[in-house]
Amino acid sequence: MNTNSLKDKIKLLANNYANEFINVRHHLHAHPELSYKEFETSTFIQKKLTEFNIPYEVKATTGVIGLIKGKNAESRIIALRADIDALPITEENNVEYKSKNIGVMHACGHDVHTTILLGAAKILNELKDQWEGTIKLIFQPGEEKNPGGASLLIKEGVLENPKPQGIFGLHVHPGLNFGKLSFRKGRVMASADEIYITIKGKGGHAAAPHLTADTILIASHLIVALQQIISRNKNPQAPSVLSICSIQGGHTTNVIPSEVKLMGTFRAMDEVWRYKAHALIKKISVELVESMGAEIDLHIDVGYPTVDNDVTLTEHAWQLANDFIGKENVEETEMRMGAEDFGYYTQLIPGCFYRLGVRNESEDIVHNVHTPKFNIDERAIEIGMSIMAWLGMQAKL
Description:
Blueprint: H1 3-30, H2 39-51, E1 56-59, E2 63-69, E3 77-83, H3 110-126, E4 134-140, H4 149-155, E5 166-177, E6 181-183, E7 186-189, E8 191-200, E9 204-205, H5 215-233, E10 240-248, E11 255-256, E12 259-268, H6 271-291, E13 295-301, E14 307-309, H7 311-325, E15 330-332, H8 342-346, E16 351-359, H9 380-394
Parallel strand pairs: 3-4, 3-5, 5-16, 6-15
Antiparallel strand pairs: 1-2, 2-4, 6-16, 7-14, 8-12, 8-13, 9-11, 10-12
């Protein structure tokens, strides 16, 4: 079939279904579930795929894997992925579809990602006699929490039987205006590891610090010392971040606590530096704390790898996007220190992780992800599901 004709059909179907899938997004947004607990979300996805006559199987408890076969089903196999979990955030948006689960919110847009993949699936299935190959739909749990739902699905064989030749995933981008897409070839997101430290020492009266091991003071020295790992050991041209984001210790004004807990995150764009830094974090932490008379328990929970977009696949997808929505609406994604378990897929098969603009300043839709007021210009849903369907039909490796 003429690609222009197919493109027009996708756009027409996406436009016809726009309101339907905005309502799908409202349902998902109002009923968010935390990582690995997405039971109602998974059931909802299964019901939708059944409604669309798309076969599926369940993996990793709440993951849903659908399969759509076009003509010559074995000729090409492309995976499309969406994450389905929410965050432990209390929503502050005053909208009719506000989260009904207090303290839980789709503050990272995974409700949008799920909606878009469902919409793309409906379009792909209706046009399956007009494109070649097989599309594997991956509705993935647990993106927001180690060890990452991608790693669990991979262990359960999501990249086998059939094995995709490439995989696409998208993420809403509140820094990019509605109507825009962005791509980046090569490394696009950082690795992410979690740091857990407990400092233990003899507590006591604040008026007699000489009789204690001052865990608060020791923690303060350690926080400053850890920053020097970045400033004095890392190549300045290689982005990296070490942030201590929680300090818990003490309950009153005149007692030096016997225990202080620190938690933080370490990000890197270089996998060799990543593990060198782990060794430095352990060495500096142990030596500093012990030299000041206390003991330390330290655990680095190794998390997601870097996200590396396959150059060939991403360049092809970029050109397909230019053709679909106009070159003037496609930009280059900036490198980000955020992390994504999509990196587990790109370690094994060619992948392309791209961005969908959702910003609308005139409507005050400007808040970042992971904040209580995050929202999107919902017209982006029509664009999102049409471009994902287009990439699924046309991508070649």
